[in-house]
Amino acid sequence: AQSVSQHNHHVILSEAASxxxxxxxxxxxxxxxxxxxxxxxxxxxxxxxxxSGDPLVKGIKGFEAEFIKSKFSFNLRKPSVQWSDTAEYxxxxxxxxxxxxxxxxxxxxxxxxxx
Amino acid sequence: xxxxxxxxxxKVTEMGQEVTMRCQPILGHNTVFWYRQTMxxxxxxxxxxxxxxxxDDSGMPKDxxxxxxxxxxxxxxxxxxxxxxxxxxxxxxxxxxxxxxxxYNEQFFGPGTRLTVL
Lengths: 115, 118
What we know:
Chain A is mainly β.
């Protein structure tokens, strides 16, 4: 069965530190990959997505992610985090199952950024 | 600015009562999803509709949960009878997906319904 693993459940950083959140998926076919962010008390919002082409994807708010097919990974990065990046981050993969598509979400990584 | 809307935003009820949550997807979207989010289980897919037809409700407890789309502008999720373990935030999301197997467009999430069952 398809699955998504986010290795870090909690990450604590100081402002200006660099961020990398890991995401690995288990699916052998063509995938579409997503990172969503959920700010405290809010709904999920799309940060970035990968369908095809350049494996380095740039999203909103200075985030980027790199798709490495050989490693089944889609890690999220930001060179310098801000306090406002405190949120929960979800990696998701679209997989075809039973003739239709659905998104499979990872468990999420809670990021706390301290001033 | 098109958004997914959900009502109510908060619901407190007693065990055994019926709960109905409503979702209005973004106009023109043909897929609707219901998710449940808890601290322990994270984000779980409960049900999935495309063109108003249910495609997958394997994540939903069948004995007490039901999901429907009476029309293209309304999706409902009902719990009857509700139990304390149903306490969670329930998110609705919508998207447009032309055909199965094609590239998957993003899902747009609503603000959620925070349900507390006492």
